[in-house]
Amino acid sequence: MGLFNVSQPTVFLLTGIPGLESTQKWLAGPLCMMYTVALGGNTMILMAVWGESSLHAPMYYFLSMLSFSDVAMSLATLPTVFRTFCLNSRAILFDACLAQMFLIHSFSMMESGILLAMSFDRYVAICNPLRYASVLTNQVIAGMGLAVTARSFTTLFPFPFLIKRLPICRSNVLSHSYCLHPDMMKLACADITVNSIYGMFVLLSTYGLDLLSIIFSYILILRSVLAIASREERLKALNTCVSHICAVLIFYIPMIGVSTVHRFGKHAPRYVHVLMSNMYLFVPPVLNPIIYSAKTKEIRRSIVRMFHRLCM
């Protein structure tokens, strides 16, 4: 039957940046730098939290979860992005594409859940500091981590099967250098209403609910901070939230953008789709370790001490 038939393709063909196929090897350097920052920076944070007893606290446990999800996301996209841009090898097996799609969406949803857990941590620390240690025990933190992971995998478990049931005969060329559910389902020559409705349900019931909960937690935090008499104390309390607010913005803004473009920007140029999707996947893993290293002096000091021990 060859590589393609009316039921489903044996392989999908990945795409780099439209219009730059002949020169996209020049992007190998910047991409390698981004992956180095994402993998190296987040790994250093994990090692710092693991090896420094002073960082064995709820805030840093949640930060290590965020770094783990960023590392996992980067590793999920690295093989196909590297092959597409550096080796000009575009083919990916159908089942491998399904697996990558599931992992990308799962780790992305895990990051959303971790950001929600981190907002709860900031809420308790600022609004009810006397109960902080009793509320956020190690058992509670572990339970929250397991709940975030279980939600991601159980909610997204149907995605590969929803794609596999579709006859794909329009094309086998994807729009990106990795596999995403909206991109794959658009290649079907059958009704994709179930995929679209379930995808929207997942988006609103997880990401949407997480974002609303984070906003609500910051409304409560802001109300509590404004009740503090001292201006210096108010600024000190808000300063502990800056890193988390930045992490929320760099995660949700690209995610909302890519979802909007996929669903309502059908006539937008292809490079817009590619740009938004790349921002959604690459920006948070690259910027999160930079932001937390720059804004959290305890993390910064721990990393410096770690390098000092390695150099001795």
From TrEMBL:
The chain crosses the membrane at residues 26-48, 60-81, 93-120, 140-163, 211-229, 241-259, 271-292. GO terms for molecular function: G protein-coupled receptor activity; olfactory receptor activity. It holds the Pfam family 7tm_4. GO terms for cellular component: plasma membrane. InterPro entries: GPCR_Rhodpsn, GPCR_Rhodpsn_7TM, Olfact_rcpt, OR51/52/56-like. Keywords: Cell membrane, G-protein coupled receptor, Membrane, Olfaction, Receptor, Sensory transduction, Transducer, Transmembrane, Transmembrane helix. It is found in: Cell membrane; Membrane. It comes from the Eukaryota. It is a multi-pass membrane protein. GO terms for biological process: cellular response to lipid. Residues 41-292 form the G-protein coupled receptors family 1 profile domain. Belongs to the G-protein coupled receptor 1 family. This is Olfactory receptor. It comes from Vombatus ursinus. The gene is LOC114042320.
